[in-house]
Fold:
Amino acid sequence: MSAYALQNGLFAALSEVSEASLTADFLTEDYTLTTVEIAKAVAYLRDNVIGIYDNPAQVADPASDAAFPFITLSGGTSQPWDTDTDRGDEAIVQVHVWSRASNSLETKQIQDAIYSILHRGTIVISGSVFIGSDYITQTVQRDPDGITRHGVQEFRIIYEEA
Structure:
């Protein structure tokens, strides 16, 4: 199972979704979002986030707020759940939001849009069959620089080999 393919699927889900859709949750069948809400969340990110990065470039002036807000995706953890006939993974991925707003509101609004897209949403993972995605945790804190707000969300994503 490819962590690279999962990372690409997350990036596409957050930035390049052409058709919003939902997948049945793999634990319950409770649908809480409509495709219209997902489309609005994607539009919000496109309008309000500078970029989505794996490794953001360092800016020439660290005091400049021009590069904010942005999102980074981190590896998280992966646990295989292979059987004699199937191969699959349960991945815990982290989505980080970085903001220089004077309060936590901007970070929380971006996290809300990410939640709307990834929680019980559909992610296309190359070479795999997507099973489900669920929200686990969310935090917002002030970064050690005293200026930047740093939000972290974790999602559990389950998929199997195609």
About this structure: The chain has one domain: 3-161.
